[in-house]
């Protein structure tokens, strides 16, 4: 029986220097002249689209240009055009040195029966803070799924999971629409697939992903991803709560100049008059989640959490810098377990 061809979506904005290499790597992973690569572009100039068009591929290609800005808007526009029958690969187009084997492993996991496969790569200890401090532990504590990189960017979906995501996006609460159109798309796809009963798996990779740093976009990523995270995580923790898993961190030196620059940037982002208390960080995460359960909007809950998140990242960068590799991983694992334990011992009301 001939299997349905795969397709790939490459959302981009102003990435003329990397789009060709990503396209070649994705094409090599697809390895099929029946496959389709969709370039979903929202760039400020035609340079990225021109670079994509000039890249020879075995697979068929489709350009969607002039799309509204926002990764989610671009991904959803491409999925609506595709109506796939086979696996769908989503690949970040700012990736440096993309490896065809990574994309092929994601597609193979879906072909083997997974509803969704996510890249699991170690993160440098000072980056990926939204994942390590919030998204991963909250998803694990509320769903029982410990997904190491829920915001991986490089993922594969089965056709049914892609279709379910489109239905869910079309029926999403209006307040979340802007978040789904932006950086909230990754966690939306994951939580939608999980809620629909699709099997979620991670493809373990040995090296960190080389791509543009996310730290400069921290406010936008938080504002768009966290309301989706708080809105779509299940309303009651699983019983029993999942055990905390080990955090794989990659080590690298951080110069004092770089560290101070990050701390200064975090201080500048803190809301005026923000107040902090002695409650552990996981308890603030639980409080924001309970706010949504109690009927407050996900955006309101995310706004409550924002200054505490900044304080958490600042504290992490300060205290973890002199720590050893194993101690950093233990700190994250302990916070992961603290959140799961806290959610498992409080009483939650229904929305």
Distinctive features:
13 helices, Glycosyltransferase, 7-stranded mixed beta sheet, two-stranded parallel sheet, globular
Question: Mind explaining what this structure looks like?
Answer:
The protein is of the alpha/beta class and 351 residues long. It is 49% helix and 11% strand. It has helices spanning 19-30, 47-53, 71-82, 100-111, 129-143, 159-170, 177-180, 185-195, 218-232, 256-269, 281-293, 298-320, 325-345, and strands spanning 7-12, 36-41, 60-64, 88-90, 116-120, 123-124, 155-157, 200-204, 249-250. The strands form two sheets. It has a seven-stranded mixed sheet with strand order 3-2-1-4-7-5-8, with helices on both faces. Strands 6-9 form a two-stranded parallel ribbon. Helix 5 (129-143) runs parallel beside helix 9 (218-232). The longest helix has 23 residues, at 298-320. The chain starts with 6 loop residues before the first strand and ends in a 6-residue tail after the last helix.
